[in-house]
Write a structure and sequence with these properties.
Elements: E1 7-12, H1 19-28, E2 33-37, H2 43-52, E3 59-61, E4 68-72, E5 79-84, E6 90-95, E7 103-109, H3 118-139, E8 144-149, H4 157-160, E9 167-168, H5 171-174, E10 178-181, E11 184-187, E12 189-190, E13 208-209, E14 220-221, E15 224-228, H6 230-233, E16 238-241, E17 268-271
Parallel strand pairs: 1-2, 7-8, 9-12
Antiparallel strand pairs: 1-17, 2-4, 3-4, 5-6, 6-7, 8-15, 10-11, 13-14, 16-17
Length: 272
């Protein structure tokens, strides 16, 4: 497998045993990586479901008990753990492709707005940014992908703020690589998720739906995101929010994430 053919599925399972859905997603999209958040199942059960689907061998990499799990079909030793935070919400992996250049894969499940303020979320992200930059400097490259449930929208301070993830909506800006704010150099991410807002898109208008009496309710949110460093942004050839697992629906009759059908989050598929 070369970098140009890598396929990734990410899904927040909301703590539900959705093994068959996961296997169908992986098979439909020929996933090389299956990335999960809020998975309460034993990783061995997920492995069994994936491999019963005749996908070739996908195996678990990492530590049991993490809130973010990584499965891959790459040979063992190709995905090297570089950092795991103490709460199990962040894992940073070096992915070695042979003979293509490797990447840094960051998988996250960040704190939610029910328990954290927007300011608290943004402050929390600054430590994540430091960890990412440290691994990039250690490995000597910035071929980095961040994927996961950020529990923030692309327009929230913790995502687009210069000293947080600094994730911008256009390649034109991201290609500058970095910006300087008050003397601090801030590395850009490119955030392609902006294009999915609203109902003039080719798929769902978000990954998570929420309704409350608040006068500033957004209803549709894009909490599940893929961010790419400028070095990799032109390698992105496909990115979708999914409504089915390839066979069964993941949305309700209103087109919203179907809690009864599966999870309150919709999954993402992207290819490089």
């Amino acid at each position: 497998m070369s970098l140009g053919m890598a396929s990734f599925v990410f899904w927040n399972l909301s703590g539900k045993p959705l093994h068959d859905h996961i296997a169908r997603l992986a098979k439909t999209h020929e996933a090389d990586f299956v990335l999960l958040a809020e998975c309460t199942s034993d990783p061995r059960e997920i492995e069994d479901s994936l491999n019963r689907a005749n996908l070739g061998e996908l195996h678990f990499t990492g530590i049991r008990g993490m809130k973010t799990l990584v499965f891959t079909r790459l040979k063992k030793g190709s995905v090297v753990d570089k950092f795991d935070d103490q709460m199990g919400r962040v894992t940073i992996r070096e992915v070695r492709f042979d003979p293509s250049p490797g990447i840094i894969l960051v998988v996250v499940h960040l704190p939610d707005r029910r328990n954290w303020s927007s300011l608290g979320q943004a402050i929390h992200v600054t430590s994540l940014v430091r960890d990412i930059c440290r691994v990039e400097d250690e490995l000597g490259h910035r071929r980095t992908i961040l994927v996961g449930d950020l529990n923030m929208n692309p327009f929230d301070d913790g995502v687009f703020g210069a000293e947080t993830l600094n994730a911008v909506s256009t390649r034109d800006i991201a290609q500058r690589q970095e910006r300087t704010v008050q003397g601090a150099i801030c590395r850009f991410f490119y955030n392609p998720m902006w294009c999915f807002f609203g109902d003039r898109t080719s798929g769902p208008p978000g990954t998570f739906f929420h309704r409350s009496p608040s006068s500033t309710e957004h209803y549709w949110n894009i909490l599940d995101q893929v961010l790419l460093r400028p070095t990799l942004m032109d390698n992105l050839v496909d990115l979708k929010i999914l409504e089915t697992d390839g066979t069964l629906t993941l949305v309700d009759k209103n087109g919203r994430p179907g809690v009864a059908e599966a999870s309150d989050h919709l999954p993402l598929i992207f290819r490089l």
